[in-house]
Specification:
Layout (H helix, E strand, L loop, with lengths): L2 H28 L3 H10 L3 H18 L5 H23 L4 H23 L1
Length: 120
């Protein structure tokens, strides 16, 4: 198989996995799971932030599955994960590794999809 086909398989695999993860984390925010509730309280923000983050994650997850929006959605989710990692490091503590892994996976999708758009 050609390199382009393999990259397409990799991108779709990451997009589907990321969509699943971000749908799951959004669901936890919408259902008032204790961790997101405590996180926004530790930030000193109201619970509106939990809902806003859940909406952003769900919108990004849906966008990952729409070919024309995949690169933009992945870029926005990568930025969101930079914020999440920074929040863990600077404010609430805990490991930022999951946020960093999701950011890197999102950035890989951006790179692959952007390269495909340039070659099309």
């Amino acid at each position: 198989m050609t390199r382009r086909i393999w990259l397409n398989y990799l991108a779709w695999s990451l997009q589907i996995a990321l969509a699943g993860v971000f749908t799951s984390t959004a669901w936890r925010k919408f259902n008032a799971h204790p961790i997101p509730v405590e996180t926004v309280e530790a930030l000193g923000a109201g619970q509106w932030l939990r809902f806003a983050l859940g909406i952003a994650e769900l919108a990004g997850a849906i966008g990952l599955l729409i070919p024309r929006l995949a690169s933009l959605s992945a870029a926005c989710l990568a930025l969101l994960m930079i914020g999440a990692a920074g929040t863990h490091i600077l404010i609430i503590g805990g490991s930022p590794l999951l946020a960093v892994a999701l950011m890197l996976a999102s950035m890989i999708v951006v790179c692959i999809r952007s390269q495909g758009a340039m070659n099309a």
